[in-house]
Each structure stands twice: as structure tokens, then as C-alpha cells.
Design goal:
By secondary structure, the protein is of the alpha+beta class. The chain has 2 domains: about 90 residues, 2-Layer Sandwich (Phosphorylase Kinase, domain 1), CATH 3.30.200; about 240 residues, Aminoglycoside 3'-phosphotransferase, Chain: A, domain 2, CATH 3.90.1200. The strands form 3 sheets. The protein has a 5-stranded antiparallel sheet with strand order 1-2-3-5-4, covered by helices on one side. Strands 6-9 form a two-stranded antiparallel sheet. Strands 7-8 form a two-stranded antiparallel sheet. A hairpin with a 4-residue loop joins strand 4 and strand 5. Helix 8 crosses helix 10. The radius of gyration is 21 Å and the shape is globular. It holds the Pfam family APH. This is Aminoglycoside phosphotransferase family protein. It comes from Thauera sinica. Keywords: ATP-binding, Nucleotide-binding.
């Protein structure tokens, strides 16, 4: 039976006698598909996840959803599930992402509106972090952090740019990775969503009675790892740019609140900010590799337009820290750029 036919048959079993229609609800970089289920009787819509078991395991999604929900995050309610076939029926958090809300009416850089939305997001993030405990989620360990960075030379450098690195450049890259890993692994550890950004945060319509803002989705890859990781996802977002002054103000506000809540942030903001910057370098290397892989392996070209912003984040961080100077030289070879003023620590 065709996959979509299986999905319709399952829905008929879990909602007998109800007539519904399915429409694509969102795009995804994985094999998962999401459909919005609308009913002829005008009942609230639902979301159904189709996660083919040969490619995806929806059990981590269910586990993380339970953890985050108990922490106070607004995640979809699970109304029915069939883990064997990879089907989940979920409450609908709406169709307006933070990204869409922040860019509506042609105003992608409205700091006042953004500050309110990000304050809500930081409140949710702090709640998730405050509920953290070891042993619940996979460790964001050295092996995983390094495996992610290795996507950069494999997919971005070799496949996307068509560049073969010399032995000296390969040695330099590995030495840079070691410095980045040392900084990442020295951070305090908490629950990490891993993609806590504007496309995975939903703007909730209070009139719809759906609950608190923001809704949080796409958390199935959550891990136990560095406390600044989700802040990097949020503020060094691949899909929208904010002025560094605006971001710095929000980071200071988060850091001050985190200290009051007893979260394990550094006692000195400068140390906390350095952790954040070096965590960003790890993430941006990974993201460039993933975007290149999505294009060359999976035929998804929608992420190519987001590469320049990610590269800019990476380049800016490398300019600020002398230990990342050799990596910056490689970036200049891959993506030549006019000399710009920078500062170092």
C-alpha cells in the first residue's frame, strides 16, 4: 500500500466516522512530512506527522516532547501515535512561524516587535534548561560535535566549492577543530533543542486558544550539551539577521536572568560570550556542510540562498579570535572577500 494510503487508513482508524482533508503543512530537511488535517464539521485542525520507519524513528520525538512539555514549553499535544508505522497525530500550533511574523509587512528588522518575541522564546528556553538532567537525552559529546564539523570539508569544501585541500590545510583544519572542541566541551551542559530558531518557533494566536507563545517544534534531535548552543541557533539564525548590538542586549538579558534562575552560565559575561561565539563557529561549519549536502545529495536547493549569511557569521567570529586566524585564511581562499575592519580578543 502506498505510504499516503496507509496514512489515510490510519487516520480512519483513530478518527472513525470523521471526514477530513490533508494538505502539506511544512517543509522539512529530513524524510519526515507534515500534513494539516482539516475537518468538514469545522472542528480544530490537527497535524499528522509521517515519519517512514526506514528513515526516521519517531520515538525520540515523543520522548523529547514529554520532557519539554513537563518543563513548561508549549509543544504539540500527542493525540494518537503508531510508532511502528511512523504516524503521529498532533495538536495544531498554527502556521505562522517566528520567521514569517518577523518579516511580515516588509519589516524584517523591527527590533521592538522582535524583542517581545525573543523574550518569550528566551523564557521557554530557560524553562527547558532549568529542567535539564543527565541521562535523559543523548550526549552532545566530542564524537558528535566533530562529526558535524567534518561535514564542512566533505560537503562544503570538496563537493560544493570543488576545492581539494593541501596536506597543510587539512592539518590546520583539524587543529582548528580541536580548539573549537575544547571550547565547546568546556561549557556547562543542559538540554539542547539543537535547532531553536525562527522556523521552529511558532507564533501562537491567543484567540485560537492554543496556549502560550511560542510553540516549539522540530525538537526530535535534542541532546544534552553546551548551554550556549540554542542561543546561537536563535540569534545567529541562518534565516534572518539582526544587528549585533540588538543581539548583545538580548544575550545580556538572558545571562542576567539565567544567573538568577541558577542556570549554569559563566560568572563573567565576557567568558559566557566567548563560549557563545565559539559554539557558533562549530554550528556554522556544520550548517554549511548540511546545506551543501541537502543540495548535492538530496536535490534541495532552497538552502543555497541562506549560505552567505551563515558564512558571514562564521567569518565574523574568526576575525575576532586570533586562534581562528588560520581558519579565516581558508575561508578567504574558499570565498574571497574584500578586507574589512575587525577586532580581536
Amino acid at each position: 500500500m502506498h505510504r499516503l494510503e496507509q496514512l489515510h487508513a490510519w487516520l480512519a482508524d483513530v478518527m472513525p466516522g470523521r471526514t477530513c482533508r490533508l494538505a502539506p503543512a511544512s517543509a522539512d530537511a529530513s524524510f519526515r512530512r507534515y500534513f494539516r488535517v482539516s475537518f468538514d464539521d469545522g472542528a480544530p485542525s490537527r497535524i499528522v506527522m509521517d515519519a517512514p520507519p526506514s528513515h526516521e524513528d519517531c520515538r525520540p520525538w515523543l520522548h523529547v516532547a514529554d520532557l519539554f512539555r513537563k518543563a513548561g514549553a508549549h509543544v504539540p499535544d500527542v493525540l494518537a501515535h503508531d510508532t511502528g508505522h511512523g504516524f503521529l497525530l498532533l495538536s495544531d500550533l498554527g502556521s505562522t512561524t517566528y520567521l514569517a511574523a518577523l518579516k511580515e509587512e516588509g519589516t524584517p528588522h523591527d527590533p521592538q516587535r522582535a524583542a517581545h518575541l525573543y523574550a518569550d522564546a528566551l523564557g521557554t528556553l530557560a524553562a527547558i534548561q532549568a529542567a535539564s538532567r543527565p541521562g535523559e537525552l543523548p550526549e552532545y559529546d566530542r564524537a558528535l560535535l566533530l562529526r558535524e564539523m567534518m561535514l564542512f570539508p566533505e560537503w562544503y569544501v570538496a563537493r560544493h566549492k570543488g576545492v581539494e585541500l593541501s596536506a597543510a590545510e587539512n592539518a590546520m583544519l583539524q587543529a582548528s577543530f580541536e580548539r573549537i572542541l575544547a571550547a565547546n566541551l568546556a561549557e556547562p551542559r543542559v538540554f539542547v533543542h539543537r535547532d531553536f530558531h525562527s522556523r521552529n518557533l511558532m507564533l501562537i494566536d491567543p484567540a485560537a486558544g492554543r496556549g502560550a507563545n511560542p510553540g516549539v517544534i522540530d525538537f526530535q534531535d535534542a541532546v544534552y550539551g553546551p548551554i550556549t548552543y540554542d542561543l546561537v541557533s536563535l540569534f545567529k539564525d541562518a534565516y534572518i539577521r539582526w544587528d549585533e548590538e540588538f543581539v548583545l542586549d538580548l544575550l545580556v538579558r538572558y545571562w542576567e536572568a539565567a544567573r538568577k534562575l541558577g542556570l549554569p552560565v559563566r560568572g563573567d559575561f565576557a567568558d559566557f560570550h566567548r563560549d557563545y561565539e565559539w559554539m557558533g563557529v562549530q554550528r556554522h561549519l556544520k550548517v554549511l556542510g548540511i546545506f551543501a549536502r541537502l543540495y548535492h545529495r538530496d536535490g534541495k536547493d532552497g538552502y543555497l540562498a541562506d549560505m552567505p549569511l551563515v558564512m558571514d557569521y562564521l567569518r565574523r567570529a574568526c576575525k575576532r579570535y586570533r586562534d581562528l586566524g588560520p581558519l579565516l585564511k581558508l575561508l578567504d581562499r574558499l570565498e574571497p572577500e574584500e578586507v574589512q575592519a575587525g577586532y580581536t580578543f
